[in-house]
Amino acid sequence: MIKPRHAPQVGTPDPERKTSPIFDRAEENSELSLDLELEEGACYFNDARYPIGQFVLSGSELLQCIERGIWTRKE
Fold this sequence. Notes:
Layout: E1 22-23, H1 28-31, E2 42-45, E3 48-51, E4 55-58, E5 61-66, E6 70-74
Parallel strand pairs: 1-6
Antiparallel strand pairs: 2-3, 4-5, 5-6
């Protein structure tokens, strides 16, 4: 996988701030049957809103915002 060059560094999730759920790639297919109330048109990380498709770095971990407004870990 080609890593995006300009993924912003967002740090670690702060439990006091809004952050969308983060899933491993292996969980993507099995866990996407979450309640529809979780579905959003964007992802949040520490109260900041990111569009679907956006990549961010949380430490050294690459995350991508995917449909339904959830983060997925990328390799």
